[in-house]
Specification:
Number of helices of chain B: 0
Strand content of chain A: over 45%
Largest sheet of chain B: 6 strands, mixed
Order of helices and strands of chain A: EEEEEEEEEEE
Order of helices and strands of chain B: EEEEEEEEEEE
Helix content of chain B: under 10%
Structural class of chain B: mainly beta
Oligomer: heterodimer
Distance between the termini of chain B: 40 Å
Largest sheet of chain A: 7 strands, mixed
Number of helices of chain A: 0
Structural class of chain A: mainly beta
Largest interface: A-B, 23 and 24 residues
Radius of gyration of chain A: 13 Å
Strand content of chain B: over 45%
Helix content of chain A: under 10%
Amino acid sequence: ETGVTQTPRHLVMGMTNKKSLKCEQHLGHNAMYWYKQSAKKPLELMFVYNFKEQTENNSVPSRFSPECPNSSHLFLHLHTLQPEDSALYLCASSQKYGQGALYEQYFGPGTRLTVT
Amino acid sequence: GQQLNQSPQSMFIQEGEDVSMNCTSSSIFNTWLWYKQDPGEGPVLLIALYKAGELTSNGRLTAQFGITRKDSFLNISASIPSDVGIYFCAGQPNSNFNKFYFGSGTKLNVKP
């Protein structure tokens, strides 16, 4: 497989459930990102990992918990979500993060999350 | 905070027409990227721009890094039905190399 893959593609969960989103990149990149995409709003950056270290947390509620065990894998653990958390969650990767350059990010297909 | 203003929000055009969309910022940017997102998919990088005045093409797509460094334009020539989707700009401000921002997107509809 090539590029950035995400599983599952679709997820419906109740507010009391616990679930995890998975992202895997096969590009040899060192930075990985989680974004939230809601209708008619710009992409919202949630978390950034650079060389497995979390470098950005944009005031994301604690019901979203990221995990980056290595440079190729990124998880987003979900628990006690709210209906307003329903959105498309996109994973992306890039060669590096920061250091004076906007490195081109490559996105996965996203997970369409619905919280009931 | 920094915002990217992308316009128009949506466009309805006839197949074969040329399309133009733009992104503006309130501050100077170092880098501009343009992405396209098909329904149910993640954004795909189309063109990256790194120098003021730079003009870069990718097939029927042409993008330019504005000379003022506060804007960027994307043009699509001779549109076809598969051009349908949402086009996003993204940019990195000169004031903070560790930040980047996305526009809210231009939704393109092409009528055969």
